Amino acid sequence: MKERLGIVLLLLIFASCQKKEESITITPEDFHYSVDKVTEVMIHDIFSPPVASRIYAYPNVAAYEILAKNDDSYKSLAGQLRNLESIPEPEKSEKINFELAALIAHIDMSKKLIFSEERIEAYRDSLYTIWAEKNDAVFNASKTYGLKVSEHIAAWMDKDNYKQTRTMPKFSVNSDDPSRWQPTPPSYMDGIEPHWNKIRPFVIDSAGQFKPLPPPPFSMEEDSDFYKEVKEVYDISNEITAKGDESEEVAIAQFWDCNPYVSVTRGHLMFATKKITPGAHWIGIAKIASLKTNADVAKTVYTYTKTSIAIADAFISCWDEKYRSSLIRPETLINEHIDDSWEPVLQTPPFPEYTSGHSVVSGAAATALTSIYGDNFAFDDDTEIPYGLPIRSFKSFKEAADEAAISRMYGGIHYRAAVEIGVKQGRDLGKFVVDKLDMTASN
Predict the structure, then answer these.
(1) What is the pLDDT of residue 268?
(2) pTM of the model
């Protein structure tokens, strides 16, 4: 009997050892899920669009740098991104799964950047348990390296001036200047991130490198170019809302709304409805492109990284102009000079008008994605399904960017100049990022 028990015990020990030597396979879906998890937490925490762009970029860079260490098809961003130094070298004696280490670094960096850390920790811990059970030695070696790289990227991140901007003064509203932005209904929030141009860029030389042409000179004289733009917003809004549920323009506006600050008032109660940011929408499109082409882990991370870098620099560039021109929104002027009961199709977001953030960011993101997947990459955009909106189909990333830009006029929150000049600003910036970054061996 004792001999039998001994044999059974030995078999169990052997089986356990065998289990811990299973390979750990990381798939593109694992990275898609990790990015989606970050988006989910950001929606919960209500991060502003500029801050959200930063939250996407750093974890993607951390993951990409690890994969580039072990894949000759991809080149390190060290020396290419501002002040980024090479990540630590892995120990050659260690059994490191680089895809696993990259995912661990992505998760750890993401946790450092959001408020609701426990949501990331619960997701992380469930994965850690699975990986440790499969192969404890490989998991621990990969975890050690992934966390070491995460710390390296975090140290670089901490010098981007973000923390300093948290202590800078709020935007000063000057009601004596009729052209200057004023807080808008219903919540009359302060202008968000007035110092975002002080954030260290990733690729562009400075926040002002792609400074756009100024908007038309402010004037409410009916024959002025500026007044004509104000009136155009009003006329388009009335025309498209008169169509009712059949309005394609209203559907376009709603599809690209992506405003995390929408406030709803019911009686004495005011609350926010939670949505993704414009950057998050384009990160969703990056996911769609990766999935459609069956991109492997490295190309998936490459796609996210290149796109998120372009988006992050686009926000820095756009916000530099927003608080330079500090232009008043259509809603304020239309209510004051044309129709005091008029409301835009979309709720006006809490920052100055010029240039359009959606236009700049969409132009930049579409240019980055086109550099990876080509000019005529048709896709079905299902990013907004979780928010009750149907799929929209596009023949190219450029077409999607053009629609995102004009959606802001349909929504009643931007003038034509902000849309047209904004999308050019984004494309010029995106081309600069694409031309300057040398990320693949085929470049």
Answers:
(1) 43
(2) 0.94
